[in-house]
Amino acid sequence: MHSRKPFYILVALLFIAGISTSIYRGLEHNIPFLPGEQVHSWAIDAKVSFNGHSQPAEADFTLPNDPAFDILVENASSPGYGLNITDVDGQRRAVWSIRDADGPQSLYYRVTLVPTGNLTIKQSEQPVIDEPYQWPVTERSAAKQIVDEVWAISASNASFAQQLMAMINDVNQSQNMSLLLASNSPTDLFVRMLNSKSIPARIVNGLELEDQRRRQQLHQLVQVYQEGEWLLFDVNNNRQGRSDTTLLWESNGNSVLDVVGGTNSQVNFSMLQDTRPALSTSIDMMMNAQDDWDFSLYQLPLEEQSLFKGILLIPIGVLVVVFLRVIIGIKTSGTFMPVLIALAFIQTTLLTGLIGFLLIVACGLMIRSYLSSLNLLLISRISAVIIVVIFIIGFFTLISFKLGLSEGLTITFFPMIILAWTIERMSILWEEEGPKQVFISGGGSLFVATLAYLAMSSALVQHWVFNFLGIHLVILSVVLVMGQYTGYRLTELKRFQPLAGDK
Amino acid sequence: MKFAWPWELRRNGVMNMNQRNISYIGRYNPRKFYKRVDDKLVTKQLALANDIAVPDLIGVVNEQHQIESIPAMVENRSGFVIKPAKGSGGKGILVITKVENGCYYKPNGHEVTHSEIYRHVSNILSGLFSLGGKPDVGIVEGLIEFDPVFDGFSYEGVPDIRLIIFKGFPVMGMLRCSTAASDGKANLHQGAVGVGLDIATGKSLHAVQFDLPVLEHPDTQFELSKIQVPNWETLLHTASSAYEMCELGYLGTDMVLDKNRGPLLLELNARPGLAIQIANGKGIIPRLKHIEAMTGPSMSITERVAYAKKHFSSTPRF
C-alpha cells in the first residue's frame, strides 16, 4: 500500500488555496462575505465659479486624493470648456480652459466616493522639511519662548503637536500667544512652530461630509509626520485624529483652485449620502481598475455570466450527493440525476418542480408500460420515451397556460433526456423488484434532489460560489477526502444493528 | 428504528460498504481481471479450462437472428436457463423447468410463450440487464438438477452457496434459500433466507430473513438449524481454486449442488455484498485481517482449505 501522505498534502493544499484566495478576494476587492450587504457612498458636487473678463481663462482644480475613499464614478460638466485631467506625482487635477470667458462662470465636478475604512496615511520615507519660517523681529522672541516651553514638556513629534495645539487653544492665553495670534492664523502658527523644530508638517484641505449639505467650504487641517505616518490635527477646533467623514481633498500642500484670467474665484461643495449594494459597488470598482490578472467572472458578457451562475452551483449539488451517498447511504436512481433535477427546481421553485416531476414520471411510466409490451429494442424504446416525455411536457405546459397557471410553464426546464432515463430505470425496477423498490429509489432521489435544491438555492451559497471561486477548490478537497471515508454509513448503522451486541 | 453505535460495529469487526470498496475491492481486485467475473461466458470458459465444474453450456446467442435457433438448441431437454453474460444481481435470468409439447413453463408453473422468450433474449442483447447498459450476449445453460438434500429448505428455486474467498482462503459462507417473498430468487434484499455456514463443517450457524433472525423457513417451516451442506470439502476446494483462475483477491463465489455432478460453480462476483455478515451473525473483518497478517510461503489449495477449516470455525447461534 503506497503512502497516503502526498494525497493528504494535496488535499490540504487545495483547501488552504481555496480558503486563502477567497479571503484575499474578500479583503482585496472588497467583495462582501454576505450577500445583500450595503455600503454608504457619498455623492459630492464641487462648483467652481469665477468672473470672466472676455479673455482666455483657465481653471486648475485639484481632484480628491485620499486613501480613505475610493472613486466610484466621476464626471465634470462645463459647457463650452475644454477639459483635461492630469496626473502629476499622484495628484490628479482637472484643468478647464476657454478662449473667451465673460461674466459669471460655473464649472461642475461630480464624484461618487466609497469609504474604504483606510484612515491612516502612511509615508515610509522622511518627508522633506520646508525652510523654517522667518519670524518678524517683533514675534521672534515670543515664538522662541513658546516653542522652547512646549519642547520641554513633550517627547515626540506627536506630543509636541498636541501640547502646542492645546496651548494655541488655551482660553487663558499667555501674552506671547496673543501677540502671535494677532498676526498669524492658528493653523499657520501651528505649522510654523512645528517647522521651526524641524518637525515635518503641512497644511491640507479637508471637507466634512454631512448628508444633504450645500455650499460647504474646504477647511484647513494640519498633518504632522510621526514615524512613517501623517497624523491629522484640526487646530481651529482643537481636535486630533480624523473621523471617517473627513475627506482630504488636497493633501500635498498645493492650492486647491488656480484661476488664470478670472477673478473672484471660489469653490463650494454640496453632498449627499447614499446607500448602495456592497457587491455591485465592488464590481464597479473592479471594472474601473481594469486589472488584466483579475479572474473575475464579471468580466464575461452577461449571458455567459448567468450561464456560469448555474454551472457553478453544480459542485454544491454534487457535494450534497456525495455526502448523502457516502456518509448517509441514501439510494438514488442514477448517481447525479438528483443534481440535475435540483437545477431544474431552481427554475421552477420547489413545490411546482416536485408536482411537475411526479406528473411527468407518472405519465411516462404508464406509457412506458405499454411500450414494454411492444417488444422493442432498448435504443428505440428509450428514444420513444424521450419523445413521449416531450409530448407530456408540452401537454402540461399548454394545460397550465390555458388554466392561467404561470407556474406550470416552468415545467420545460426539466432535462428531458434525464427524465427519460429515470422513467426507463424506474420501469425496469418496477418490473423486477416491484413498486416498493421504485418508491424507495424514487423517493430517495427526490429527497436528495430537494436537499440539493435547498443548498443550491440559498442566497449565501449562490453568492459564494460565484464571487469566491476559491470555494470550489475547498469543495474539491472535501469530495476527495470523502472518497477516503471507510467508516459506516448512517443507514448501515441500522442495517448491521443485529451485529452490534456483545458476543 | 434501532441504530448501532459505530464503535460497537467496529469492535465486532463488521465491514461496511465504503471500507469494502476502498480497502478490499480497490486494493485486492485489479480492474483488468474484472472481465473474468463480470462476463459469465468468460468465467465459464475459464472454469472449463481450469477443470472447475460448471453447469452445461447449451449455446450462446450473439445476434438477434440467432434467437430463432433457441428452440432447436433446447430440444430434448427437460429444462434450461437463459441468462445475460454480463447481468448483475441475478437480473435477467429466465429459468424454464418444464418443456412440454413445445411450451415452456417457469418453476411456478406459468407458461412462457415463444414471443416472451424472444423479447427476453432481445432485451438481453440490447443490454437491458448489463452494467451500464452495454450490449450483451445471452447464454443458454442446462438446468441444474439440484440435490434433494435441500428439499424443503428452498421455495421455488435452487438454494445456492455463497463463499467469500479472500486471497484464496474461504473465509465466510452462507446458504441462500429462496422464498415466496423473494419470488424464487436467491437475493437476500429481495427476501431470501440467508443461512450462515460454518467454514469447518458446512453446518448452519445462524439464519436471517430481511436482516432479522429466523429459525425456520417461512414457507416450508423446515428447521434451518439442521442444515448440513454435503460435499463440503469438495465445495470449499472448488471455490478456493477460483482464486487461481481469476486472480481476484476479494471474491464471492456462488455455487450450487447438482444431484449428479456435485458442486458446480454458478458465477463469480468481484463485489460480493455485505449481507453474509448478517447471515453469519458475525463481522468478517477479523478473518480478513487474520489472512492479511499471514506471512510465509504461498499455500496450495488443499493447504488453504485445511487452514481455513482450522481457523474459521464457529459455534451455532440459534
UniProtKB/TrEMBL annotation, chain A:
Superkingdom assignment: Bacteria
Which spans are transmembrane here? 6-24, 307-328, 340-367, 374-396, 408-426, 438-458, 464-485
The 7 transmembrane helices usually fused to an inactive transglutaminase domain sits at 255-499
- List the InterPro entries hit by this protein, alphabetically: 7TM_transglut, Papain-like_cys_pep_sf, Transglut_i_TM
The segment(s) forming the Inactive transglutaminase fused to 7 transmembrane helices domain are 24-183
Any Pfam family matching the protein: Transglut_i_TM
**Keywords from the named record:** Membrane, Transmembrane, Transmembrane helix
Q: Which residues form the signal peptide?
A: none
Instruction: Report what the protein is called.
Output: UUP1 family membrane protein
From TrEMBL, chain B:
Q: Which Pfam families match?
A: ATPgrasp_ST
Annotated ATP-grasp domain ranges read 44-295
Tell me which domain of life the UniProt entry assigns to the organism this sequence originates from. Answer: Bacteria
Q: Which UniProt keywords apply?
A: ATP-binding, Manganese, Nucleotide-binding
List the SUPFAM superfamilies: Glutathione synthetase ATP-binding domain-like
Q: Is Cytoplasm there in the keyword field?
A: no
Q: Does the keyword Nucleotide-binding apply?
A: yes
For this protein, the record's PANTHER family field holds:
BETA-CITRYLGLUTAMATE SYNTHASE B-RELATED, RIBOSOMAL PROTEIN S6 MODIFICATION PROTEIN
Name of the protein in question: Alpha-L-glutamate ligase-like protein
The record lists the organism as: Shewanella intestini
